[in-house]
Amino acid sequence: MFAVIGDPVEQVQAPSMMNALFARHGIDAVLVPAHATPARLATVVRGLQSTGNVDGLLVTVPHKRAALDLADVVAPAAALSNGANAMRRAPDGRWEAGNFDGEGFVRGLRAAGHEPAGRHVWLVGAGGAGSAIAVSLLSAGAELTITDLDGHRAHTLTERLSPHFRGRLHRAAGPVAADLAVNATPLGMRPEDPLPFDPALLPRSTVVVDIVMKPRRTALLRTAERHGLLVHYGAAMLAHQLELYLDFFGLGGPRA
């Protein structure tokens, strides 16, 4: 059994997608949503980790950073992005944390024909998902400008990553003319949310990307389309993580 932990969990798409993947591969497993507030996160995770038939966890907003403290071993990508979106029980009983948000995001871009190498990307949001996406975009050869309403958070992420990607990482307070503009915040999940940025201020050549999966056509993407910009939907990031999750949980490889 596997669980995806978040607050809220009504919007999570992983159970339907992962359970379909389990069925397609003939894997006797199920992924269920588990609601945990920040105050209850440690209690919920420790309880699941102590359950004998729970072999792994997925982690979503707002728990990706806190999940690191609940792991015994942290993979390099999770350490660099300072967050985890998956945890697994190792054969020795220890719990290992990994992060596949960034790799799934880049794979999704490439599958849609948006190669990030050599492109300038404006990333709005320096939280758990944004940090992982930043690491993978930079690793893929992109130039990156980061914006966050919390200036300290943007500064901290930039300072942490700059030594690894010298000369390709910047910060900005407002709209940036870029090849891709990415919303890596939760804004757009609720109807009353403001836009994370105004697509009308971007060049018409910019591709607007949202990582919010539900609703599929967020207000940001609808607005971008009205202004004639190409858009890229949030579900691609998760869809391109599914096989990575299978491998991480030891369920990948050839099957009869």
From TrEMBL:
Record bears the keyword rRNA-binding: no
Annotated TM spans: none
Pathway annotation from the record: Metabolic intermediate biosynthesis; chorismate biosynthesis; chorismate from D-erythrose 4-phosphate and phosphoenolpyruvate: step 4/7
Database matches in PANTHER family: BIFUNCTIONAL 3-DEHYDROQUINATE DEHYDRATASE_SHIKIMATE DEHYDROGENASE, CHLOROPLASTIC (PTHR21089:SF1), SHIKIMATE DEHYDROGENASE (PTHR21089)
A GO cellular-component term linked to this record: cytosol
Keyword Membrane: no
Biological process, per Gene Ontology: aromatic amino acid family biosynthetic process; chorismate biosynthetic process; shikimate metabolic process
Organism: Streptomyces pacificus
Keyword tags: Amino-acid biosynthesis, Aromatic amino acid biosynthesis
Name assigned to this protein: Shikimate dehydrogenase
Domain Shikimate dehydrogenase substrate binding N-terminal: 4-85
InterPro entries in alphabetical order: Aminoacid_DH-like_N_sf (IPR046346), NAD(P)-bd_dom_sf (IPR036291), Shikimate_DH-bd_N (IPR013708), Shikimate_DH_fam (IPR022893)
GO molecular function: NADP binding; shikimate 3-dehydrogenase (NADP+) activity
